Fold this sequence. Notes:
The protein is an alpha+beta fold. The chain has 5 helices and 7 strands; from the N terminus they run βαααβββαβαββ.
Amino acid sequence: MPTLRTARPGDAKALAELAEATFRAAFGATNAREHMDLHCRDRFGESIQAAEIADPGLVTLLAEHEGHLVGYAQLRWDPAPHCVAGMRPGEIQRIYVVGQWHGRGVAQALISACVEEMERRGSDAVWLGVWEHNPKAIAFYRKQGFIEVGEHVFSLGGDPQRDIIMARTLASGG
Ligand SMILES: CC(C)(COP(=O)(O)OP(=O)(O)OC[C@H]1O[C@@H](n2cnc3c(N)ncnc32)[C@H](O)[C@@H]1OP(=O)(O)O)[C@@H](O)C(=O)NCCC(=O)NCCS
């Protein structure tokens, strides 16, 4: 089973490669190439992920197996949409696992680590946005205790898409 740890500055290159590869694997077949390319150009690259790792407003958790990254999750604490209850909600802005590790508990472990980190920081709710045409992830989040609370528009390389917003209350919410 992969081990989990917080990303360090030296992880930026490997994280950028993992982030782009898993994003393309998940959505490349169901989206136009131009939108995918634009999104990947804007969001993934060593300097971009280096800035994310250095950003005190973000936490990047990595799943690593035999020296290779096999999954990651990123948390942030930007203002949440109004449909998310809670005084101090945190967001799982990304969670991705490489295909050959799907169905082996890596994302469950990452979610548990996300929840622990959020509770440690005093968050009382966790939320995320998931593409309406991503039924596997929606089912996974439901199993993890998330419920649908709203929707918002996510721009994938200029293509406006409907994301479902799902949320879960955390223990630190009392
Ligand atoms: C959604 C996603 C993150 C789930 O990752 P995953 O690592 O496959 O998830 P898990 O293995 O933890 O859980 C999946 C299933 O495997 C089961 N499982 C299998 N072996 C397991 C084990 N050893 N331990 C725990 N759970 C296990 C889980 O119970 C769960 O059951 P389910 O299929 O009935 O829901 C993954 O499919 C992914 O990266 N998808 C592409 C990217 C994506 O859509 N990201 C979300 C964007 S919003």
